[in-house]
């Protein structure tokens, strides 16, 4: 079939809850305050995912050495700018709503590289991979990694501290995960 089974979803939930804990620790260190991360998982079509992404947004297309194809790591811009400002020593208030500059992108690319490393570590019991960033986009409509009707696994990390709440999404296409699913069933 072209959908994930309940058993597979449970495994993905477990992997990404481990990622959520690591992300909470990482962001708490970077933002110098306790950051809560809640993980939820959904199945939808790629088109539905792309339609849900705000314009502009910070969209990182990444892959892994063992993967066929690409996945997406997407961060809301309010989180992007708040985090950037705090990292740079600012108060992290009143994030702008505009596409990031090249300098802002290159700083945050390093942060996302670190977060993708945490994601890979969370996966390592199940499937070891070395993540690499392929591309960064700000308009979701320019990001076509799979056909619109392909099912994707959408992992949403709700990131909050104090009065602030935002989101990071990881979008895993079925075609990328499918070769790994046989391994999953063997567990």
Topology:
Layout: H1 6-31, E1 36-45, H2 46-52, E2 58-64, E3 71-75, H3 77-87, H4 102-123, E4 131-137, E5 151-161, E6 164-173, H5 174-186
Antiparallel strand pairs: 1-5, 2-3, 2-4, 3-6, 5-6
Helix pairs in contact: 1-4
Describe the protein in words.
It is a single chain. The chain starts with 5 loop residues before the first helix and ends with a helix. The chain is 42% helix and 27% strand. The chain has 187 residues and is α+β, with helices and mostly antiparallel strands. It has five helices and six strands.
Largest sheet features: 6 strands, antiparallel
* % residues in beta strands: 25-35%
Summed over residues and divided by their number, the pLDDT gives a mean of 94
Total of DSSP H or I helical runs spanning 4+ residues = 5
List the uncertain runs: none
